[in-house]
Design a protein that fits this description.
Length: 287
């Protein structure tokens, strides 16, 4: 048995108008082809769907049952067509987005908020990890796109740079003996430091080049944790400016560090070897 959607559409038109001629006019087809399709539908189903008379047609019990199912099937098809088309156009679907903890303050931004308002069926699944963990998940296709922080090396990924910002020191009053508005590397080397592990290599390299041996009081995997520990007077946190601005409390002071090599940039990254889906492209365009 092969029943197609066109036959069901024709069947419903006849059922609703009660006349073959009126249904044919509504469908913009000739009457003979419509009559043939209805007869074919009855043959394939093995039942009579209409009682025919000179005044028109009425549904048989089998026709009444089919009318409900036919309408459900056509509604379901329309819904499926709409959702698949919406997904293909980037209007709906689920987007897996990787995000580093130090992207706080940069996301969600106003454009992304506008995007989700315009496309309420867009779902975002956040995956939080460090930069290298997210790059690995991108390569394994476990996520679609990621917001990560430089420095890193990933020639197989395409990228779009967002904000570039300096590293700052989040200094609790306990250690705030500085007399200048900005600090040098030599200044921060004099106090216990709380290091966001993502930048350990950069800090170690700089301190070694300057022959400095600061005391690293704590190393953590989350920039937010570094600021929280500084607020608790456990040491001086070295974090990107945006993280400090978002999270530092009234018991701490933010000092910019005057050292160009300690600048860092947030980037949106995605696989370079495949075209971004419409959904991924909309996300990229929101930054």
């Amino acid at each position: 048995m092969v029943v197609n959607f066109r036959q069901l559409t024709y069947f419903l038109a006849v059922a609703q108008t009660g006349q073959i001629t009126a249904a044919a006019q509504q469908l913009h087809i000739a009457q003979p082809p419509l009559s043939y399709q209805i007869k074919q539908l009855e043959t394939e189903l093995g039942v009579t769907l209409f009682n025919r008379s000179v005044n028109g047609v009425t549904l048989t019990p089998a026709g009444q049952l089919l009318q409900d199912y036919a309408q459900q099937l056509l509604d379901l098809r329309a819904q499926a067509d709409s959702q698949v088309k919406a997904l293909g156009q980037g209007l709906a679907g689920t987007l897996a987005v990787g995000m580093v903890s130090s992207s706080i303050g940069a996301t969600p931004n106003a454009k992304l908020q506008t995007l989700t308002r315009h496309y309420p069926k867009l779902q975002i699944r956040l995956v939080e990890d460090n930069t290298y963990g997210l790059l690995d998940q991108l390569r394994k296709r476990l996520i679609d796109v990621a917001i990560v922080r430089t420095p890193f090396s990933a020639p197989d990924l395409a990228s779009k740079s967002l904000a570039s910002e300096p590293m700052v020191a989040v200094v609790p009053r306990k250690y705030d003996h500085f007399q200048t508005a900005t600090l040098r590397v030599e200044d921060v080397a004099q106090v216990p430091l709380i290091i966001y592990r993502r930048f350990t290599h950069i800090f170690d390299q700089t301190f070694a080049e300057k022959d400095l041996t600061p005391f690293i009081a704590c190393t953590c995997d989350d920039a937010r944790t570094a600021v929280q520990w500084a607020d608790a007077r456990m040491g001086v946190a070295l974090v990107p400016r945006s993280v400090a601005d978002q999270l530092s409390g009234v018991q701490t002071t933010i000092y910019p560090i005057n050292f160009r090599a300690w600048r860092t940039t947030l980037q949106v990254v995605w696989p370079a070897n495949r075209e971004p889906s419409p959904l991924v492209q909309r996300f990229i365009d929101s930054y």
